[in-house]
């Protein structure tokens, strides 16, 4: 990227096209850069408008894998947790840990439910 002065004040008020052009001034081939970033825009204008409203100063979309970690137990309920991350080992580790925890917790929850003392249940939180 080229070194240049700070982008002018009011950047957030620019339309997306102008923001993209301002950022493209930092790279060696601005037109190629703009074409590449535009290639990630959604084909449906209404959908793209929603993406643009998710964050400030959007100039493009960034597609990364959407994985899930099943068997996550929170307050005794089992959930599937969405994980948007490019590192597959994080999803795998979270899924494996949740599975191990669910397997280990099942017998404990049964014992806790069966053994009451003075109307108190044993609650184990992982």
Explain what this protein looks like in three dimensions.
The protein is of the alpha+beta class. The protein folds into two domains: 11-53, no CATH class; 66-114, no CATH class. 43% of the residues lie in helices and 13% in strands. The protein has four helices and two strands. It has helices at residues 16-24, 30-38, 45-53, 88-114, and strands at 66-74, 77-84. Strands 1-2 form a two-stranded antiparallel sheet. Strand 1 (66-74) and strand 2 (77-84) form a beta hairpin. The longest helix is centred in the C-terminal third of the chain and has 27 residues, at 88-114. The protein is elongated, with a radius of gyration of 24 Å. The two termini are 46 Å apart.
List the keywords.
two-stranded antiparallel sheet, 2 domains, 126 residues, alpha+beta, single chain
Secondary structural class: alpha+beta
The helix count comes to 4
> Which stretches are poorly predicted, pLDDT < 50 over at least 5 residues?
108-126
Total domains: 2
**What does the average pLDDT come to?**
78
Task: Give a summary of the structure in a few sentences.
The chain is an alpha+beta fold. It is built from four helices and two strands, in the order H-H-H-E-E-H.
